Amino acid sequence: MPKSSTAHKEKKTFSLSRQSVMYLEALRKERRSRSMSSILEDLIRQQQQAREMERISASVTRYYDSLTPEEIAEDRAWGDFAATQFPSED
To answer: In the chain, at which residue ranges do the beta strands (DSSP E only) sit?
Structure first.
C-alpha cells in the first residue's frame, strides 16, 4: 500500500539552545513519546491549529463588523424566531 503524502518525512538538522532541547526532552518523557521528532510535529501542529483558529476568528469578526444596522436587526429577528421553535423544557 502506498504511503500517504502526510507520512513522507524530510530529514532536517536544526541547532537549538540547550534550554529548548531540555524542554523538548521533558515533553518527550512526559508524553512517553519515542522520539523528539514526534514532539516537534505535535508542537508545529498545535501552532498551525492556533493560527487557523485566529484566522477564522478574525474572519468572523470582519464579517460581523461589516454588517449594516438593518442586517444586524434582521439576524437578531431570525435568532429570536429560531429560539421560539425549540420545545419547552417545562
So the answer is: none
pTM (whole model) above 0.70: no
Domain that holds residue 43: 17-83
Asked whether 39 and 26 are in contact (CB, 8 A), the reply is no
Is residue 2 one of the residues assigned to a domain? no
What gap in Å lies between CA 53 and CA 56, rounded to an integer? 5
pLDDT along the chain (90 residues), means of 10: 66 95 96 94 97 98 96 96 86
For residues 57 and 45, is the Cβ–Cβ distance under 8 A?
no
- Does some domain include residue 31? yes
Q: How many domains are there within the chain? A: 1
